[in-house]
Design a protein that fits this description.
Length: 127
């Protein structure tokens, strides 16, 4: 993998997600925020994410692809495996760590989905 973790397609997807999450009252900002997010994500990708060890770049890119596809079960599994490899919990073997991390990730993902649904329903009632 070259610079960073994300492909151009992944960056465009993530920028759109950010763009859709925030609606600016300032028409100028609302017009250009998608491109601003995209530029910021390119910056993060090439400078910060490029520092990630090579062996994690492809798995992190694959995680982004699973999000793009809406495959949350696969996301939970892959993310938990990466975290279990990175962090050791004293007294647990790797399989137990995966279960702990998967449970935490599932909780976070469900909280984000709930927040998005609430935001959509609030936006629908406003607009």
């Amino acid at each position: 993998m070259s610079k960073g973790v994300w492909t151009r397609e992944q960056i465009k997807f993530l920028a759109k997600v950010l763009d859709d999450l925030k609606e600016w009252k300032n028409i100028l900002m609302e017009t250009f925020d998608g491109k601003i997010y995209e530029g910021f994500l390119h910056f993060i990708n090439s400078l910060a994410l490029d520092k990630i060890p090579e062996k994690y770049k492809l798995p992190l890119s694959e995680l982004t692809t699973t999000v793009m596809e809406g495959n949350w079960d696969e996301f939970d599994d892959k993310a938990a495996e990466i975290l279990a490899e990175l962090f050791n919990i004293p007294g647990m073997d790797e399989d137990q760590e995966v279960v702990v991390f998967r449970t935490g990730i599932q909780f976070i993902v469900e909280a984000i989905k709930l927040w998005i649904e609430k935001k959509k329903s609030t936006d629908d009632t406003k607009g």
